[in-house]
Specification:
Helix content is 38%, strand content 19%. The protein is of the alpha/beta class.
Length: 383
């Protein structure tokens, strides 16, 4: 067996020395393996010396050195994650972002690189995207899946309860079960930004970080707003292809949140209050009026979103608050949670500006019945 690192060889040598001391050990076989390990170590040292000489030659600008083939051979023993975390891969990815030519990145990935499909992003980019998801108050709590194409999620529209059957009594009747199906059809969420040639020239980590932070932030912001809109626009009763969400009317007060919470089923376990930040002022007024004795949110976590109108600015019958468990929302990513980018340096070349387009494919919808209650503003009083 050939080992790839000197550390692995030294570990095996230590094991052999212990095995030699055991009763009945095959000393000849163990000695032969020791010799093979010595030769293996010599080969690794020789390869490391040659690699160092080649690196020096590349740094000094020597001709006749095939840089791509050298990098490919050098990275063969590394995992994809190790390569993605390297500065060299980051720089190559920055050049790919500008040129759309992924040959250098795939050469670094060597045999671990997929022949086609989405190119693995640097570890930094993966961290940026994951942090953005986790930082969003709404999307960090929804259920996420990664099924290809449209996803159909069944739900229970109506069902008979269970029955107690006493001995000698009439047999129970078959359950009358009615199912509905919510179909999550993915849509393309896009965002593009303009950057100057000067920023492009910086390259490397600075370019990649700037582009992905801005594009990812805007895509997540829109997707979060779309999830909120899916909840507030729901009908109050179930249909064959959509889950109904109860709706009550009320203003910010000490009782409106408990009233909304009472309309949830026992399947809503991680209940939160979702409002526009401006609406919290009205809740504070109610708390002060109650001499601070009662928490108007009934002890529930409060999430803020600008996708809901402030109570003071909401029109009559408009939903201004959601009370519920966001696990009742499902977001499906057919192409994964990553953001795919394209680069355009021609459209506005005369202005020394380039466009970077980002996109994410996602389907979303309410898939958990009994998990939400919409609270709308009271209807205007007519005289």
């Amino acid at each position: 067996m050939k080992y790839k690192t000197l550390a692995e060889i030294e570990t095996r040598k230590a094991q052999i020395l212990q095995e030699m001391e055991q009763e009945g050990a095959d000393l000849d076989a163990l000695k032969n393996e020791m010799e093979e390990l010595r030769q293996n170590a010599d080969e690794l040292r020789e390869a490391a010396q040659k690699a160092e000489e080649t690196r020096k030659a590349i740094a000094e600008g020597a001709k006749g050195v095939n840089v791509v083939e050298f990098r490919k051979a050098e990275n063969t023993s590394k995992t994809v994650d190790e390569i993605r975390g390297s500065q060299e891969y980051m720089d190559a990815f920055a050049r790919y972002l500008v040129s759309n030519d992924d040959k250098e990145c795939r050469a670094l990935l060597t045999s671990n690189a997929p022949a086609s499909g989405q190119l693995p992003v640097p570890t930094l980019v993966d961290t940026i995207i994951r942090t953005a998801w986790e930082s969003d108050a709404i999307l960090s709590r929804v259920r996420k899946t990664g099924f290809k194409g449209n996803l159909k999620v069944p739900f229970e529209r109506a069902a008979d309860p269970a029955y107690e059957h006493l001995e000698g009594t009439t047999a129970i009747t078959e359950e009358d079960l009615t199912l509905g199906v919510v179909e999550l059809k993915p849509t393309m969420i896009k965002k593009f930004i303009r950057i100057s040639d000067e920023i492009v020239a910086i390259g490397g980590e600075a370019l990649v970080s700037y582009v992905y932070r801005e594009i990812t932030h805007q895509i997540i912001k829109l997707l979060s707003a779309k999830v909120i809109a899916k909840i507030t626009s729901a009908s109050t009763s179930h249909s064959a292809d959509a889950i109904g969400i109860p709706k009550i009317a009320g203003a910010p007060s000490l009782t409106i949140v408990p009233e909304a919470e009472a309309n949830l089923t026992d399947e809503a376990t991680n209940v939160v209050v979702i409002i526009n930040r401006l609406s919290s002022a009205a809740f504070n007024e109610a708390r002060v009026a109650g001499n601070f004795a009662v928490d108007p949110y009934d002890g529930l976590p409060v999430l803020y979103t600008s996708a809901l109108p402030a109570y003071s600015a909401a029109s009559a019958d408009a939903v201004w608050m959601i009370v519920g468990d966001l696990d009742g929302v499902q977001v499906n990513y057919p192409e994964g949670e990553g953001v795919i980018t394209k680069y355009d340096d021609l459209t506005e070349a005369e202005a020394d500006m380039v466009k970077v387009h980002g996109r994410q494919y996602a389907g979303y919808g309410v898939t958990g019945p009994g998990r939400f209650v919409n609270v709308k503003k009271e209807s205007a009083v007519t005289t």
